[in-house]
Amino acid sequence: MNIQYRVELNQSERDQLTALLRGGKHPARKLKRAQILLAADAGVSDAQIAARVVAGGSTVYRTKRRFVEGNLELALAEAPRPGAARKLNGKEEALLVATACSNPPAGCARWTLELLSDALVKLTEHDSVSRETVRRRLAENSLKPWRKDMWCIPKVDAAYVAAMEDVLDLYASQADPKRPVICFDESPTQLIGEVRPPIPAEPGQLERFDFEYRRNGTVNLFVFLDAHRPWRTVKVTDRRTAVDFAACMRELTDIHFPEAVQIRVVLDNLSTHSAASLYNAFAPAEARRVLRRLEFHYTPKHASWLNMVEIEIGVLRSQCLDRRIASREKLVAEIATWEKRRNSSATRIKWMFTTDQARQKMQRAYPKPETLHDIQFKES
Fold it and tell me: Do 216 and 285 have their domain in common?
């Protein structure tokens, strides 16, 4: 290292390196080289740079040399490292990728590294292919054939659009105490008890709880949310039958909104979410009395994201239920406390998606109206 390399960065290069160090996800070696170049540009000696970035003197020397003899990109990039030649050539790697993307062998739910290694031995002239070779080649191609993902693409037809715009128009309407918009849904919850008492947190130590737990059954949560004002309530029940749904609707009209003329309820297409459920639970006159004050608005199939209460259920789970609660009584008390605090803080969901935005962003998915041909009438 007899040659002394002097690093002189221009302003554009300084800005690039500064931005690299301020944010983003980058390899640690690349960040260290950026620190070396900025320090060298500022006139810091090699020994001081090595101490500052915790690197060897040879690392500082190589980084400066690659910048002076090459450019900034070359100085930041990894240099080719000596080692054994790649065992799989380009054709064999392509064969590995194609195999990993195909169906697994009969009797296997998914591809594993062992199965892929065996398949390559059969398909190529190699006597053996290690699991590590397979793993690295898959990682280079961002492939994880042992993992699967589930998705659902709803059928966007005229019925979907009509239901979606109906719900969006409700959200966009002005708040009316006589005709409130109430979003409604249910969610099951497990009652989980501890086998051994948790160990409380202390300085330098997280709270710890035992891996084992005790199942104490399940309950159902009926969640109501006002779309226009900061109000929500949660009812805990043992089941979610048609009778339970009917009881919720009667509480909505008689207890929560006794002064409302019409309550517009946004809900999904669950089989119990219907007027028939009230006739299963009450006498005909009572069922009709409650239904006269209810107006059901259904979200499209596979469109739970349109129900504002789904957001509230997520908040409830993250703020209150993300822990082990052993009994129904404790769950009811905890939810009541959460509900009181959230209502008193005047917190509400701010819905941003509108009908106009839906027509713009989902334009391609909207059904095309049929063309109407003009009919010309000739005078006789």
Answer: yes
Q: Order of strands across the sheet with 213-226?
A: 232-237, 213-226, 181-194, 263-267, 294-298
Instruction: Note whether 223 and 108 are same-domain residues.
Output: no
Q: What is the distance between the alpha carbons of residues 87 and 84, in angstroms, rounded to a whole number?
A: 8
Q: How many domains does the chain have?
A: 3
Place of tokens 């959460």: 338
Neighbour-count burial of 40, counting CB atoms closer than 10 A to its CB (0-12 exposed, 13-18 middle, 19+ buried): buried
Q: What's at 303, amino acid-wise? A: A
Q: Range of 24's domain?
A: 11-76
Flag whether 163 is in a domain. Answer: yes
HSE-CB for 312 with a 13 A CA cutoff: 31
The answer to whether the beta carbons of residues 35 and 52 sit under 8 Å apart is yes
Domain-located, residue 83: no
Return the H-helix or E-strand segment holding 211.
Answer: none
Q: Find the farthest-apart pair of alpha carbons in the chain and give their distance in angstroms, rounded.
A: 108
Q: Which residues of 294-303 are buried (b: 16+ CB within 10 A; e: fewer)?
A: beebbbbeeb
Residue 319 corresponds to which tokens in the numbers above? 């703020």
Phi-psi region of 202 (alpha: psi -120 to 50; beta: other; left: phi over 0): beta
Would 366 be classed as within a structural domain? no
What is the residue-level pLDDT of the chain in tens, covering all 380 positions? 467 888 889 999 999 899 888 877 888 888 999 999 999 999 899 999 999 988 888 899 989 998 888 888 888 887 776 767 788 888 999 999 999 999 999 999 999 999 999 999 999 988 899 999 999 999 999 999 988 887 777 788 889 999 999 999 999 999 999 999 999 999 999 999 999 999 999 898 899 989 999 999 999 999 999 999 999 999 999 999 999 999 999 999 999 999 999 999 999 999 999 999 999 999 999 999 999 999 999 999 989 999 999 999 999 999 999 999 999 999 999 999 999 999 999 999 999 999 999 999 888 888 887 755 544 444 54
DSSP 364: G
In a domain, residue 351? The reply is yes
**Secondary structure E strands in 213-271:** 213-226, 232-237, 263-267
Q: What is the pTM of this model?
A: 0.66
CA 8 to chain CA centroid, nearest Å = 45
